[in-house]
Structures are given as C-alpha cells and as structure tokens.
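Task: encode each sequence below as structure tokens.

Item 1
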Amino acid sequence: MTTNGIHSIEEKRKEENSKEKSSSSSNINKYKKNIVNDSCVDSLQLTANDSCDDDLQNIAEFYNENIGALTPYGLEVLADYAKDMSKDLIIFAMKKALEANVRNIKYIKGILNSWSKKGIKTLIEAQKEDENFRNKTSVKEESEEEKKARKIKELEESIKNGSS
C-alpha cells in the first residue's frame, strides 16, 4: 500500500471519530433541551440546572472516550441515573465496567441498580462496597486454595498408608 493510501485511511478514521463525537455532543444538547431533570430543575436558580448539564456532559464524555459512542438510549439511561446519583458515582460504575472489560450500557446499569438497591449514593460508599466485595472474593479464593491443599495432603496420606 502506498503512503498516500495509508494517509487516506488515517484521515478517514480521524474524520469518522470527529463525526461520532460531534454526533454524541449534538445528542446530548438535544437531550438537555427535552429532559426535565427533577433533581436539577430549580425555579429560583438556573445555575443548578447548568451544573447538572455539566455533570451529564462529563458523564457522556467519559463514556465516549472510554467505552464507545454513546447512543441516545444510553444517554437517556445515564441521565436517569444522574437524577439520583452523583457524576462521580456513575463514572466509577463505568470504570468498574472497564475493569471487567464489559463495555456496554447494560452492564453499567447492572452496577448502578445494584448500588441503588443497597442504598449506595456516594462514591465513598461505592468504593467501600467494592473493597468488601474484593475481600469476600479473596477469602473465597483462599478457601479454595486451602481445599486443594487439604485434598492433596489426603491423597498423599492415602497413598502412603496404602503402600505401607
């Protein structure tokens, strides 16, 4: 392939990425105009609404940059969670999805629903829950290791006793 062909392909990729980002931004702006976000609407102060718009923008940007192009449905889902949960908590859920290498809105919803059922509303609470989950998992792994070691020891003893 010629260098012109390579440059042409790179230019097309850059153009497609910029189209995706501008499309997502336009979806966010359209959605902002149509959504009535109870936690953000303050008839006395428009700045509260601006702050929530910024939070939604930050959430959408994180999704676009780390997970993929945010669809209008995905934006609607994240906006619904943003009514009751902080931007940091939603972004943390997306980070958990990335760590699990599951890059889709369904998995993120599962994490957020789990936290909601447990009454988790802050990033600190979510981090504690995550730490507790990791500790439970590591304890289970240790018991599995202990089981294996015990079975090996039993087999060795039965072989030793069988040959005596």
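Item 2
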Amino acid sequence: MKKTRQPSRGAIKRAEEELKIGAKILEWEIGDLWGHVGTRLPDDEGIAVQMFRRPEDGKKDWLVHFDYQLNKLGGVGTAPREATIYTEIFKARPDVHAAVHSHAPMCVALSLADKTVSCVHMQSGRFGKGVPIYPDPIYILDDGINPMRF
C-alpha cells in the first residue's frame, strides 16, 4: 500500500499565518467587511478559511480546515456556508492558491448597480477593461454550480 506524504506542521502554520495576514490587510484596506479568505493547504490536502470578523469577544479566531468534500479537518469553527466557492475554484484552477469571499458595502452597491467596475489604479491594470463580477446573485452551495463560468 502506498503511503501518502502528509504536509509538515510548519508548512501548515505558514499557510495559516499568510492567510491571517491577507485577511488583516483586506480589513485594513476595505474597512467594514463581512466574509472570509481561503487558501489551499500545503500539498493540496484541503482548504483553510479565515473569517474576517471575530465571532465573539474572548473567542479564538475562526479559522477552519476542510477537505474538498467539505469535511472538517481541523481548526476553529465550521466550513462556511459558501465553502463550495473555494473547492470549485481550486479544482478548476490549479494555479489559484487563494480566494476571497466578501460583502464589502461598496462592492455590494456596485454589483447591484449592474455597472462595470473600472480599473483606476496601477495595480488593477491586470483586470483590463473591468473586474469580472459573478453574474448570478445566488449562493454557490454545491458543486453543481460552476463559479468559474463568468
């Protein structure tokens, strides 16, 4: 029987630290924010997701690990309701290692206005003529809905 190599605890800790830093930067830059940020675990063993807001004062930060079938592997909390966003993006795009799901007030307002989000910053030049917006205002709750179809 072939043994599978488990990622080192150090590699997992580094992924968690980078995830926390990414979440903190988004909070600093965007402000009032609901949602979460997720990353692939080392060796693609699953996904780690960090919620932007702490669940309650005095509680540990909500950071959970789950596999591609949404089974909890460890951490604090449960896989978010929209966890399939991460699993489907990571399955469809092996080159993508992190994704963000958020409800920033300005982003919500712009998506409801049905207008193109223009790129006005040098760092946003990679988006060309506009930032892609998922066309359906629905929850992506199962793997029958492909989040990469826009």
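Check on item 2: The first strand starts at residue 35 and ends at 40. The first helix runs from residue 9 to 30.
End of task.
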